[in-house]
Here is the input.
Amino acid sequence: MKPSEALQIHRDRIRLIVAKNDAANPRVFGSVIHGRDTDGSDLDILVDEIDGKTTLLSLARIQVAIQALTGIKADILTPLDLHERFRARVVREAKPV
Here is the structure.
């Protein structure tokens, strides 16, 4: 299954997973946004940290839960995880989950 298809099926659950694990504003970016995802692509999700709550463990829990739900490798990143050279473009292009 392509990540774009999994996202359509599990959109509400993904939002819930992010909220329950102390992050906010889940957005998809990468190959899904550009219509280039394949069965072997991963699901790239950008989330915002919640001050004083979001930890690396939070992000890992989100990643594990989304992968278990969708059966697709997921990359969960915050804007600051992105290299400054392309951060602004990715944040601008990212679409809400």
